[in-house]
Amino acid sequence: MIADTQKINNAYRALLQAAKNTVSPDDNQVIRRALDLAVEACGDKIILTGEPEILHALSVARIIAGEMGLGLTAIITALLHDSYNNLSITPKELEKEFGKKVIEILNGFARITSIDSMQSSYQAENFRKLLLSLADDVRVILIKLIERLEYMRNLNHAPEKDRIPMASETYFLYAPLAHRL
Questions:
Q1: Alpha-carbon distance 34 to 179, whole Å?
Q2: Which of 78, 110, 145, 169 is the least buried, fewest Cβ under 10 Å from its Cβ?
């Protein structure tokens, strides 16, 4: 079942409220278009914490806007970061709508997400260097870190068997990376 429309609308309003100091009111339509694409692509997918994927994307975007103070490009990218490979439009159409930077960041995010961090965890410093080298834009790393932050904030909803590995990976890999940045 697709995430409750009311919850999506509430999360969207919270995002716009968080973004009011970093984007213009005219940008709200662009954010809404990105949200519509993400809703369509996410469908009824559920993430590790049991939360619908679209609500996770909205939470990441809200943190990007409200807590990090990043602008429109980062907000759009945060909304689309999980659904990029399932969008109903081509990367070329996406670029035409949102700009080349959005595509570059989404591609960078896809590259670093494909790395198996559990295999790399025994070489934490090498993993962090690899992430930094793969990201052409620091926003790729920031979105990855914020995605992890959002997971950690909701980790109590994840199955017991997944909590320790997620927390351990965060402690050994992502926290030092955030500290370095």
A1: 30
A2: 110
Please tell me the number of Cα atoms within 13 Å of 60 on its side-chain side. Answer: 31
Residue 15 to residue 155: CA distance in whole angstroms: 21
The alpha carbon of 157 is separated from its chain's Cα centroid by a whole number of angstroms, namely 19
Tell me which fold the domain 5-180 belongs to: Hypothetical protein af1432 (1.10.3210)
CA angle, 175 as apex, 172 and 180 as ends, to 5°? 115
DSSP summary character for residue 52: B
Listed by start position, the domains of the chain span 5-180
The type of residue at 180 is R
Model pTM score: 0.88
Please give the chain's pLDDT, 181 residues, in tens. Answer: 455 889 999 999 999 999 999 999 999 999 999 999 999 999 889 998 889 999 999 999 999 999 999 999 999 999 999 899 888 899 999 999 999 999 999 988 887 776 655 554 456 666 666 666 666 788 888 999 999 999 999 999 999 999 998 998 888 888 888 887 7
Residue type, 37: L
